[in-house]
Write a structure and sequence with these properties.
Layout: E1 7-10, E2 13-16, H1 19-29, H2 40-51, E3 55-61, E4 65-72, E5 78-80, H3 86-89, E6 96-98, H4 111-114, E7 122-129, E8 135-143, H5 151-223, H6 227-230, H7 233-261, E9 269-272, H8 273-283, H9 285-290, E10 294-297, E11 302-305, H10 307-323, E12 332-339, E13 343-350, H11 380-390, E14 394-399, E15 405-412
Parallel strand pairs: 10-12
Antiparallel strand pairs: 1-2, 3-4, 3-8, 4-5, 6-7, 7-8, 9-11, 12-13, 13-15, 14-15
Helix pairs in contact: 2-5, 5-7, 7-11, 8-10, 10-11
Length: about 425
């Protein structure tokens, strides 16, 4: 709270020493120029009733004007700060109560007292202090007749002034909330636009790169069928390297396109993870057989989610388990689920080379490759992270007992963005 204010006179009216902070606070409340606050008329009417006078008003003092933002007994308006009685009251340390304002030297020459604007005699005002003690204005009651004010009436006016500040605070918080919501809506619109542009760009780049790359792969394949070329060991080695490089580039383009395509809210429906995993295992059949891997799939639930995205998620994880298998033992992958009251917890555990604990957060970022000797683009797990975020899910990386990596997906039972979807049971 600010302490007792020392004032200086300028342009015919006193100015508090905290004037700069006071004006900034007034701007923060956003009440000048705003539509009338619906709760204030009742407060000023009550103030007039409590004090037994015909007129009451909420006066807000700006740098050069007085704004009557709610009035009872007359039509509120705007006047210069120099003419305002409340511009004097805001620099006083306490409530101002005058039985006859014409007898007080501070107010006797004011145009609201002299008859130029009005003929005020009785005048009382309680200051409107913000949360930091800056006085924004007053709750004022007045009459053209002289009379006294009782102690209960004084206390009542102070309490009603605090009620006015409560209304102003509610307006300020509502304004802040509106601005925050509008900022959120703008960010949401920009995100939708950005995702759409990203998908369009990725699709265009994919198309533009795939066309020449298809030609390269075709020419390499044609060269590999020429006897004179295949008879030359060096030429064969170069062809193999060219084919391998072109194939890696093709896969990277596919990965980038897949990553760009994961955006916004998923199209949720009932998805059988049991059937999805089986389809993924079938798709990876050649790689699994080549690694002599064993995939043990235990009963998995039917969940709500985007079928395509969940398939990409599971395929990337299983593909990594096969790709990063340990060279000194047969590859094994165990897939199981655990039910909690709110989630399905899916665990995919392999016995591969594992991921060092310090590197686990980093592998979920784009283009992160811990092993340059293993083919990959560094996009797969980043795509997985985008998918789980789109489903309001969580992806965590841990260690398998005995060595390897355990990927845990905590998937809400309700559809992403909707708590009203029914819970689906596990397939047994």
């Amino acid at each position: 709270m600010v302490g007792l204010m020392v004032t200086v006179a300028t342009r015919g009216f006193p100015v508090p020493t905290d004037e700069g902070e006071r004006i900034r606070s007034l701007v923060d409340y956003g009440i000048i120029g705003a539509p009338p606050l619906p709760d204030l008329p009742s407060v000023v009417e009550l103030a007039a009733f409590v004090c037994g006078v015909p007129n009451a008003v909420v006066n807000i003092i700006t740098s050069d004007e007085q704004h009557q933002i709610a009035a009872y007994g007359f039509e509120g308006g705007v006047c210069s700060r120099e003419d305002s009685m409340c511009a004097i009251s805001i620099v006083e340390p306490t409530q101002v109560v005058l039985a006859d304002a014409g007898l007080d030297p501070r107010f006797a020459g004011n145009p609201f007292v002299t008859g130029i604007i009005d003929n005020v005699r009785f005048y009382a005002s309680s200051q409107l202090r913000d949360r930091d003690g800056h006085v924004l204005g007053t709750l004022c009651v007045f009459d053209q007749e002289v009379h006294e004010m009782t102690e209960p009436q004084r206390r009542g006016l102070d309490k009603l002034a605090r009620m006015v500040m409560d209304v102003l605070e509610l307006h300020r918080h509502g304004r802040m909330l509106h601005e925050a919501l509008e900022t959120g809506r703008r960010a949401s619109r920009e995100l939708v636009r950005s995702n759409s542009a990203l998908q369009h760009f990725a699709g265009q780049v994919s198309h533009d790169l795939k066309n020449p790359l298809t030609g390269v792969l075709g020419f390499v394949a044609m060269l590999s069928e020429i006897p004179a070329v295949t008879a030359d060991d060096e030429a064969t080695r170069c062809l193999d390297r060219a084919m391998s490089s072109a194939t890696r580039m093709w896969r990277m383009i596919e990965d980038v396109l897949a990553h760009a395509s994961v955006g916004g809210r998923p199209a949720c429906d009932a998805v059988s993870l049991q059937a999805t995993v089986q389809a993924v295992v079938d798709d990876l059949g050649a790689a699994i057989a080549g690694a002599d891997a064993v995939v043990d799939v235990r009963p998995l639930p039917t969940v709500y989610g985007d079928a395509t995205q969940l398939r990409v998620l599971l395929q990337n994880i299983l593909s990594n388990s096969v790709k990063f298998r340990a060279p000194d033992r047969p590859c094994r992958i165990d897939i199981e689920s655990v039910e909690t009251p709110t989630d399905w917890v899916i665990r995919i555990a392999d016995n591969g080379i594992g991921i060092p604990e310090q590197d686990r957060p980093r592998v979920l970022e784009m283009f992160t490759r811990l092993r340059t000797d293993v083919e990959g683009s560094g996009i797969g797990l980043a795509t997985c992270q985008r998918i789980v975020e789109a489903h309001d899910a969580v992806l965590s990386i841990g260690e398998t007992a005995g060595g390897g990596t355990t990927m845990t997906i905590t998937l809400p039972k309700a559809a992403a963005g909707s708590a009203q979807q029914p819970v689906l049971a596990a397939a047994r």
